[in-house]
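REVIEWER CHECKLIST
Item 1: Sequence provided? yes
Item 2: Single chain? yes
Item 3: Sequence as submitted:
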Amino acid sequence: MLKNNFLQYLEYEKRYSSHTVVSYKTDLTQFHLFLKSEFDIEDISEVTHHIIRNWLSLLLDSGLNSRTVNRKITTLKSYFKYLLQESVLTENPTRKIISPKNSKKLPVFIEKSKMDQLLNEIKFPDTFEGSRDKLIIDLFYMTGMRLSELLSVSVLDIDLVNSTVKVLGKRNKERIIPLSINLLNQIKNFSEKYKLKSFFFVNFEGKKLTSKKVYTIVNYYLGKVSSIEKRSPHVLRHTFATHMLNNGADINAIKEILGHANLSATQVYTHNTIERLKNIYKQAHPRA
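Item 4: Structure as written out by the authors:
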């Protein structure tokens, strides 16, 4: 009951996305199963700081990375904060919990030459699916939008006059992303040719594509030009940001386009740019 009330609070009052709410639900379900199996606890008021630390140690020992564990810590902290607000608890057992340091991993991206090859040389079928899949790749690469945002794009979100697309980002925050003339024409032609009325990315029967289907499409086409292990929509988002920075775009502008709440989330892409400069220096300087 308490868990369900908390999840409804996240969805309706905090306006978290359905994806985020599902993640919180999964984390809390895992935690409650741990409480029952290891300590035979069903009453949340019996949870202590040491029990939570025990769970976190178990997660780390199981091989989960620090980023995933930190997300679960965030879930617990939000949950117990909510229980305090609702006067269910008088003390917060997560107050002294310290998050493990995240290992800094540079975002994986596709080289510009590989993207040029994909968009200019790889043949997409001259069918509804081929045109749709090409537009999916182009939109990810040329706007940096997230998978959930792309799936929600409808005909009404495209502003043909101002050359922009409106997307609904994390926590249901709307933002406007500029579109190039070529991309706008591609969108317009696709919409008119197939007489789209609502969502852009549907199957031949008109049903909205699933996240899994879009992931499969992106993985397939990136596999034609790249051997990187993870060929996902998010890699195209990383590629967009990295290529923009490499070509001199202002980092604050990239932050706004990506829909990042904090600049620190965008600054991770500067590391890729620094690595690129180092490589250029090593190749070009006679004494490097």
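Item 5: Key structural point noted by reviewer: Residues 67 and 102 are 6 Å apart (CA to CA).
Item 6: Recommendation: ____
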